[in-house]
Write a structure and sequence with these properties.
Keywords: Cytoplasm, Translation regulation
Function: Required for dimerization of active 70S ribosomes into 100S ribosomes in stationary phase; 100S ribosomes are translationally inactive and sometimes present during exponential growth.
Number of helices: 4
Organism: Yoonia tamlensis
CATH topology of the largest domain: Double Stranded RNA Binding Domain
CATH class of the largest domain: Alpha Beta
Shape: globular
Helix content: 25-40%
Radius of gyration: 19 Å
Subunit structure: Associates exclusively with 100S ribosomes, which are dimers of 70S ribosomes. Interacts with 100S ribosomes.
GO cellular component, one term: cytosolic small ribosomal subunit
CATH architecture of the largest domain: 2-Layer Sandwich
CATH superfamily of the largest domain: Ribosome hibernation promotion factor-like
Number of strands: 9
Distance between the termini: 43 Å
Structural class: alpha+beta
Strand content: 35-45%
Largest sheet: 5 strands, mixed
Strand order of the largest sheet: 5-6-7-8-9
Length: 191
């Protein structure tokens, strides 16, 4: 498994990196079959340290957790506890959904863009249709069933997930609605 442990404007020592690898390795050994990558980023927000952990599994699923504390080790431990709880909660689901899957999830390349927000006070900006692109990145779109997509969205604690529907190979979206339910957009269903 590959680890990428870094800090945003803070120095990460060898002792902390060893602690992260050991603890995260133990968590993943209990619940996840074949993790491939782990990204852990430490930052400082006011008086608190923030630890963001993302683990990619070979099944195509991604688990992520964020922890905050006044000490950097405690921030990682908080993130680790959340990751542990997520993987424990979804272990049965992961087994059930992927028991029949003989191949890993197929991933397609796509472009991802960050757009500059439109300032409501600027009347000239309101009249323009084109938004300013701040950043361009590459992202992966997984090929999943609807159930797997919902599970992936819940594991990642994401508000929305774009995926390629395995049944008809079309692009679909699942999202968390304001009423707490899950919405599913399938353009192919209307065609």
């Amino acid at each position: 498994m590959r680890y990428q442990i870094s800090g945003k404007q803070i120095d990460i020592g060898e002792a902390l990196q060893t602690h992260v690898k050991t603890e995260l390795g133990e968590i993943l050994a209990k619940y996840a079959g074949r993790p491939t990558d782990a990204y852990v980023v430490f930052s400082k927000s006011g008086h608190e340290y923030v630890c963001e952990s993302v683990v990619h599994l070979s099944t195509g699923l991604t688990a992520q957790a964020t922890g905050k504390a006044s000490e950097i080790y405690a921030a990682f431990d908080s993130s680790g506890e959340k990751m542990d709880k997520q993987l424990r909660r979804y272990k049965r689901r992961l087994k059930d959904h992927h028991a029949g899957r003989s191949q890993p999830v197929e991933l397609s390349d796509a472009g991802s863009y960050i757009l500059e927000p439109i300032d409501d006070s600027d009347e000239a900006a309101q009249d323009t249709v084109n938004a300013m692109i701040v950043a361009e990145m590459e992202t992966k779109i997984p090929s999943l069933s609807v159930g797997e997509a919902v599970m992936q969205m819940e594991i990642a604690s994401a508000p929305v997930l774009v995926f390629r529907n395995e049944k008809h190979n079309g692009i679909n979206v699942v999202y968390r609605r304001d009423d707490g339910n899950i919405g599913w957009i399938d353009p192919k269903a209307l065609g």
